[in-house]
Amino acid sequence: MAMSIEGSKLRHDHEKAPIHSAGPLEEDGGFIHTDKKKSEGVFSRSWPSGREPYYPNQSSVFHGCLHHEYVMERWNMQAVDLSPDNTYEVTVQKHAYGGWFEGLEFIKDGKVYIIGADIQLFGENNSCATTKFIHIVKDDGYTYIVAQPMTFSEHRLRINIEDQISPETKDMGQRLGIYPVENSWNLPRSHRYHILNFPPEILHIIFKYLLWVPYAFVEPDVIITNVVKSYEKFKKPTYKATLLNEFLPMHNDDATYQPWRGSAMIKEKKICHGGREIIQLNRILRLMIDATCLRTCREFFQFGSAILYGNNIFKFPNPDREKPKLGQLYDWPQAIPYVMEQIRQGVPLKEFAGWAYHDLFLRFLYVIRPRNVDLMKHLYFWGTVSIHRCNSNFRDGRCPNCPVSLFPEMCIYIQFINELCPSVERVTLEIDAPTLSNAYDSTFSIQKERDFEHTITPFLMNQIRELNFVKSLTLRSWDTGGLKYAYDNPDRIHGSQDLDFPIAKETIRWFEDRAKGWAKEEQ
Question: Where is this region: Disordered (predicted)?
Fold first, then answer.
């Protein structure tokens, strides 16, 4: 009984907690609690280290980690040095919002705020969507514990409508006629506030926020299988996103907040921390791409699918060595029409051809179905080329020190793009030299870059130009094997760069001239 009463109080606290979007800070002054004079420019906690914080009940516990006093002081002093024109109070405010340092306190409008842990969305088997607090407790001499362990019931903060909408908001909505049924968002199509009655420009902004990752490409991996032992068990589809010219993913399919995505939803909650009443701020994270809205109705599906597949850049890497290789098939020209027909008909997964079953690109085409394949506009392929000259004889004709070449797979992909993806207008190829090879005295050399250019020339002069509907081609590389990529080069090139070989520029110009010719014919 006590647990149920405590749980109801916890739900009531979160029900009253307002949710808002973090907007720009105003230079309204305010003050910071300090133990020293402001003229000294030192920020200090209002409660000393080692003092046990006071928690009147479980719902008022600060969730997160708090750095030591002098760590906070150093952070704030760095912010002051970077913003000498602003007052100390305004600088700390902007520093707290900009860096979002967990455990940092600041004053705004005369109220004390503290940044808490993020609220992440997650799902469980046989349960609805839930949220949880992530606890970060460091014990390295620089931080100390300020959060108490939460029970399992406290982790499960339901995010249904009743928990997220305050009674005041419900009452206002009913008076305005927004909610014809209590605790319900369902509106008739004829209602003036129905979302489909919004102007198309507004709908486009909403769906782009949910379904588009700007300035990045998405790497879909929809292969789920336990047929091969090397595959990870219980693997789920992933859609990792990477910023252009970045090597490591900025965020993956998990709910993580990135400043370049825009403002995040912030939840406020009053807590008693260190014997004081403080407002705790928790970011409510969102998925990189939330495609669940497409299941709402046919209009949502049609409008949103065009944005999801038409605006995003989909990147596919070269198949791994452990998986079946397309280039190993001796009869692949005869097998390609068969797989194309399987994708069109949507055959059961167990009947899908094995060599296409393990390929990331072809499996993606199979999963999203032809209606969505026809919406894609930009494809991105990455891989390495084999440029070794070891002159060794191997049973399968491949050198174990060199990765599988990108070109055999691309020759097959070109046929699928021409037949199934006629709406693709742009293709990006990232072609890299192998990083490991016993054929050269050094990993980077002039000869290696020459061999790289010699290897890609036939493909750029012939096969790539068989793309029948592509208007723009981009050729990039992280490493061509030249000395400009050497680690000991002080002017070393970092990141993906456009290929500057003459054959690359000529091929790009060939696609541009063809697109201009098509435009003249349409006029």
Answer: 1-33
